[in-house]
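Schema walkthrough. Field components (list of strings):
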Amino acid sequence: MNIKEKAIKSFFMENPVTGLLLGLCPTLATTTSAENGIGMGLATTFVLLSSNVVVSLLRNVIPNRVRIPAYIVVIATFVTIVDMSMQATLYQLHKTLGLFIPLIVVNCIILGRAEAFASKNTVWHSFLDGLFMGLGFTFSLFILGSVREILGSGAWLGIRLIPESWNTILVFVLAPGAFLSLGFILIGMERLSRLFERGK
Amino acid sequence: MVEILLPGFILAGFALISASGLYLASKKFYVYEDPRIDEVEALLPGANCGGCGYAGCRALAEHIVNDHTVDTPCPVAEPIVMEKIADLLGLEASVQEKQVATLLCKGTHENSALAMDYRGIQDCWAAVIVADSIKDCAFACLGLGSCVQACNFDAMRIENGIVVIDEEKCTGCGICISHCPKNLLVLRPVSQKTIVTCSNTDRGPEARKACKVACIGCMKCQKVCQHQAIYVEDFLARIDFEKCTNCGDCVEACPTNAIEMRGEQVYVTA
Amino acid sequence: MLQLKTFPKGGIHPSQQKISAQASITYGEIPKQLLIPVNQHIGRTANVVVKKNDVVKRGQLLAQASGFISSNVHAPVDGKVMKVFRFSLLGGAIGEVIQIQPDEPGKSYREVLEQDVELSVDLNKLTAEEIRKRIQEAGIVGMGGAGFPTHVKLSPPPEKKIDALIINGAECEPYITADHRIMVEQPAQIIQGIKILKKLFPEVPVYIGIEDNKPDALNMMDKAAAREEGIFVVPLKAKYPQGGEKQLIKAVLNREVPSKGLPMDVGVIVQNVATVLAIRNVFYHNRPLLERVVTVSGSLVEHPGNILLPIGTPVSYIMDKFNIDRERVRLLLAGGPMMGRTCHSFESPISKTTSALLFFDEKAFVQRQENPCLRCGNCVSVCPMGLDVAIYVQMVQKNKLDDYAKEHIMDCIECGSCTYVCPANRRLVHWMRLGKRIIKREN
Amino acid sequence: MSKQESGFKVISVLVLIAFFAAALLAYVNKITREPIARNMKEETKQAVRIVLQNLGQFDYPDDPLDKSLTEFTARYFTAKNASGQIVGYAIIVKAPNGFGGDFDLMVGIDSTGKVLDTYVLNHKETPGLGDNMKKEDFKKQFRGRSLANTRWAVKKDGGDIDALTAATITSRAFTAGVKRALTVFNVLNEEAKQ
Amino acid sequence: MAELALIIVSAVFVNNVIFSRFLGLCPYFGVSKKLDTAVGMSMAVIFVLTLAGTITYIVQTYVLEPLNIGYLQTIAFILVIASLVQLVEIVMKKVAPALYRALGIFLPLITTNCAILGISILAVQSKFNLLETIIFSFGSALGFGLALVIFASVREALETREIPKTFQGTPIAMIAAGILALAFMGFSGMVK
Amino acid sequence: MEAKNLLIMDSSPLGLAGESTRKIMYSVVLSLLPALGVSFWMFGWAAVRVVVLTSLFCIALEALIAKFFNSKIDYLDGSALVTGILLAMNLPSNAPWWLLLIGSIVAIIIGKQVFGGLGQNIFNPALVARVFLLISFPLQMTSWPVPGQFDGTTGATPLGILKTEGVGAIAKLKTADLALGYVGGSLGEISALALLIGAAYLFYKKYITWEIPVSFIGTVFVFTAIFYWINPQQYASPVFHLFSGGLFLGALYMATDMVTSPISGRAKLIFGFGCGFFTALIRLFGSYPEGVSFAILFMNAFVPLLDRYFPEKKFGMQS
Ligand SMILES: Cc1cc2nc3c(=O)[nH]c(=O)nc-3n(C[C@H](O)[C@H](O)[C@H](O)COP(=O)(O)O)c2cc1C
Ligand SMILES: Cc1cc2nc3c(=O)[nH]c(=O)nc-3n(C[C@H](O)[C@H](O)[C@H](O)COP(=O)(O)O)c2cc1C
Ligand SMILES: Cc1cc2nc3c(=O)[nH]c(=O)nc-3n(C[C@H](O)[C@H](O)[C@H](O)COP(=O)(O)O)c2cc1C
Ligand SMILES: Cc1cc2nc3c(=O)[nH]c(=O)nc-3n(C[C@H](O)[C@H](O)[C@H](O)CO)c2cc1C
Ligand code: SF4
Ligand code: SF4
Ligand code: SF4
Ligand code: SF4
Ligand code: FES
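Field assembly_structure (string):
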């Protein structure tokens, strides 16, 4: 498959969040800022990538009946590795993302990709799939994080955009704002997808 | 080394307990189910995300097998998966000639005038509640577009008081047919070019009064047809698609233009 | 004052407009031609038993009932069958009609009636079977609007014990005064009819329900009934749709006909006063159902009135008789403004169920643009059936009827109260009717 | 589909995978344990350095000590100068009843009982409101205050502390937290004197 | 007693799984299209979450902590939860087919619902004892159920409204959820 | 179609009672006049400014949407005006213009038009906006001008004082002052009496029914009374709760919004009870001083369920 096409697909049409509506919990919970969004996205990408590769490697060894538990164990292993290494290296970020790092295990995207793709494709393809799906995920987290940070804190990637004395719309860093922003972003992404589809 | 092996053994223990527990349980509590459900489920991603609207992959598999349909695609899986499932269940219908919906009426505003000033809900079914027909012809297309609403493929539009079907877009799904209160829509194979575009079963004079291009049941077409493909019943000509060769003789013979040749004339030699 | 009875839930008070209430029943002439609809009842279509050029006598069978739930149709005058064809009937339907050329057009119908001798009837000799048989033969159908064959109603299955008869003299619709005039002018005859019905259900009390906006009818019926055993006149507080049989039963007896049920499920039979009168004429004149009283009214009618006409009289005859300007008529209603149906041909004939013809110009028609529902609940609070109208209608519009709505939508009696009060001008009844259609189509 | 996999194979594959997974994790844990522990300590140490930075050179133990008073418990670091003299304390207390519950507050106090600086260790206050307590504007008013020279309450409650706008609750908790730290200081100071 | 009541109120309203903790959102949006399904799913979650909370508590206190292998928490919990759910499914299918038909179909969905793992981990982090853990898990699941059932009925009602085309489907669901989250903010601070 | 002398055909009935959406909405505006009058009197031109601006913003936004997206919208039908006025009545008179603009945008767009406009929204638009603003701008939304003083003095609402300073602090407030409006608060919550007069008119016109206000206010009274009875030192008296905050505004005008409340009488009673219960809960135990808006918004979400499980009583269900 053409890499560019694949990239566009996983960023828009088949974007895990806006296209497939999966992995919503980390999406909404960790996107109080663009930076957090990227952090979560990359952590997920790493797990997605590694587990895709390992699942693809093991795809002929694992008996069908236990494939789900087996995949879960594989995924959980990588999640724990991410968890520990982030704590060792990116301590502050790890603290903000908190509970949602271990919860990558149950992020539906990961198991879904392991099942739908990696268990049936070559290692290289699974690697690419993991990479792009992960980046697509990161992308939407980044967008959502940006919107919420700009509206809610008046800053972007930590850089203050409006004067200190101005008010920011606090809701956007809180729970309701997460849902509302995602609602509107979904529409934007849908529009973009259609644009790309027509462009093809 | 111990600090590495010990966790290994512990988790292996966990795995052993749960795996053998499940294994035994699945033996002991075995329940028969259509084995194809398992097969379909195996093809599905197993992400159990619920994205398809069913409660997990198995529920979708049950739906597919029990209702024998692949109408609900899995949002996670590649499209090929659904094809595979269709193959597995032999759902692929054998290749058939394309069918298109066809309106058996030519009662445009010119041909069959409006008989009233209908102001109710603009829907064919709503209109027949108020009056059997809103045009002079009791059998005419009402032109309020219940069928248009029903078509999922944007293949219909209303033009000059009757519905016009875009045969390119029409998929022959047939949904529109049951949505017409006047029963004016039928499916016909695209290669069938000759159509009686009338459904009026009144006697000739009344039919004529109601619509300029009505079939008056004069029998001329029946007489002229060499293939016994057209016959008049209840003062209305009808074509047997099996027998019709699209020769066009009846079209020539009809005094009221109630028979129509669609597109290029194609002669089929018997 | 005694609290007058009425049904408790819902209902409205539309402007009465009973402008023809004091106009005595007049008689028409035999028109130049009659169009007798073959189907004037609920049930199976009757079979036409005459053909072109047949000579028919007054009272002769034209169409024969095709089963139990079906009804005979007779020739109202002497004449010749011209043809049988399909034609627009009052109310928008298209159906078969028998065209008759009368032998004596222009003859006063009163004279025709006066030829019918008044027979003396010995109630004691009549058996129940005979009564039912003669009503059936006479082609009597409910004249209150629905046209349900009366002999069917009067033959409840044995497990349904009937313990009350209600005579419906409510006439709650605006404009219509036909039943009102009958009650004022022919109370004794109505009582005679009731007594025939009582033979079918001996010992069963009969209640005549009349709204308090017709004091003269109440008075006359009261007097006529006073001498009779077991016949009671029940004055009712005027409220629309009191005449709906379920509402009437609730008002008079405080019984609720169950959802999807029939009056006989609560031991009641309801008959309209005109129907009772028609039944009486079967026995006292040996006359099948040939004519009825029609109220002619509306803003274009200078002298509104009530007129007795042979069935099959075309609207155009009435327009001539009442001097109605054809050019100005834009709205022709068969029945009242709440439940009546619009008509689109002046040649359509009146039938056994035509209680009124109303003529209006453009002004009477409220051009309504449907606005979004406010969920104000007006429709729900006036619905006499307690339906959640607004909610069902939204479902119908989106084609998302759920089981609950499907269960109840069928109970709508199409009384029109909901549309009447909707501030958003929503065509609620029309949507409800559409909903019923959709459900029927699905089954 | 190979439907008839033997029970033994099914179970053993899973067990093996689990074994290797856990072993791998144990290995990673072994590598990361040190840095994580260091990170955790480092954070507190960083805080200690911040709240006591005005003291100049000082020295303090790696791990905090516990101190229980009747109403609450605290942890503290004792800062000593090169000559081993106590120059200040970094006291960790729970600030009670914040908007999002109790939160951990570190207060640096010099040997005379004056507040040097404060540091919020972790909290659940609202971003943009309660968490403005971390800002200099708010923090600076505490410097130099002692148990004696201040009425420890927000102005609204008749004290000396300017509350954060629209976050009185957080301000109250914060104030109470600093007051607790000062109380602990008093006890520690007494003990040290003895 | 009051403690336990507070845990419930907190889990249902104040720290609602959906609106405050952001857990289990995928099924929340996936299974809320129909009310009946939402009710079934809620029941299933209540059952499984309570059970899972209990078992993971046992695993944590009697295995992981004594052996000092807390880092295996994620992997051990998920393994236990996944097997547990499957075991329940198998047993229920045989023993109580009626119940299985009502609830069982939701069981597979639950494995990947992060509320289960999330709440189990949170219970451990909050240092609850066994009884508190059970109440906490049950309350959280109840909160999930409440949110899910209301939301499903709202979405069903939206089906009959004139939603502009652009917003139909998920966008309007998100916005409705956002407004519901606004309403839930009212409970904040009720329990610390 | 040219249909000059064709007869009109339509479904019955052909008569209409002559109610209209506009009539209802403008009656609501009319009924709000006494309360508006009181707030103009108390807060002066500042209050006029707030009301005029939100009304203009709301109508203008709807007009814009009508122009660019959906020509079917009738932006002068009065509903946008009602939303605007009711939003204003939920705001302090010193609210800056941008706050009013954001509030109007949230009310009209997020609260109403994304759902399809009039009648289609599940949640009360004015309350969506109010809660949105309350959460986003707690600073502006919790400093209330003191009535009768036009010098920009601000203070807390009685409920705010209760929440932050406890029962003792409110002892000096007189019930009569509360009912007449001599206490701090938003435009609409200061005079219960004026609101009652307006609502009586709506009640007379049958645009609102008794169920919601009575069960709402009654429930708040009962619950606060129970706690007052348990411990008057800690909880304020039920009378105080009745006349402070937006209880009357909420119960009479906002919970009764026909679009976002249930239809049948039984359902309305339950709806009102729910509103009252959660209001009391939030007031007594929550960290927000006032719970009316949250409670109504929360109960709005229950309306579809209530409509479904407590429908109108059907004819024919008497056995
Ligand atoms: C299919 C059908 C069967 C009926 N059967 C009976 C019956 O057995 N007994 C009876 O009293 N009425 C029967 N009715 C008549 C109804 O009770 C009612 O009188 C009729 O539908 C007209 O009602 P309306 O004029 O109130 O609309 C039946 C009606 C229908 C449509
Ligand atoms: C809304 C409504 C109003 C009605 N009003 C009357 C009425 O005023 N008078 C009447 O006789 N029948 C009225 N009917 C018809 C009665 O329900 C019932 O069909 C009739 O009284 C039965 O008697 P019949 O079979 O003799 O016509 C009305 C029906 C409906 C649905
Ligand atoms: C979303 C939201 C979050 C809030 N967070 C805090 C907070 O973190 N700390 C706080 O003290 N008050 C917070 N408040 C404000 C309180 O509810 C209360 O209004 C305030 O503390 C008392 O106000 P005052 O300072 O204006 O007297 C918050 C309010 C809202 C709307
Ligand atoms: C009695 C009554 C109360 C109303 N209350 C409100 C309200 O609280 N908030 C609001 O935005 N609109 C209110 N409206 C106006 C209108 O119903 C509202 O804008 C719709 O919710 C918009 O679809 C009210 C209307 C009426 C008739
Ligand atoms: S509904 Fe189906 S058959 Fe009818 S026109 Fe559309 S595509 Fe063709
Ligand atoms: S074909 Fe039938 S449904 Fe379609 S517009 Fe004509 S009458 Fe209506
Ligand atoms: S729903 Fe039917 S029964 Fe109810 S008021 Fe409307 S027309 Fe009458
Ligand atoms: S009367 Fe009209 S606006 Fe009111 S609820 Fe019924 S349909 Fe809606
Ligand atoms: S990410 Fe939480 S349920 Fe899907």
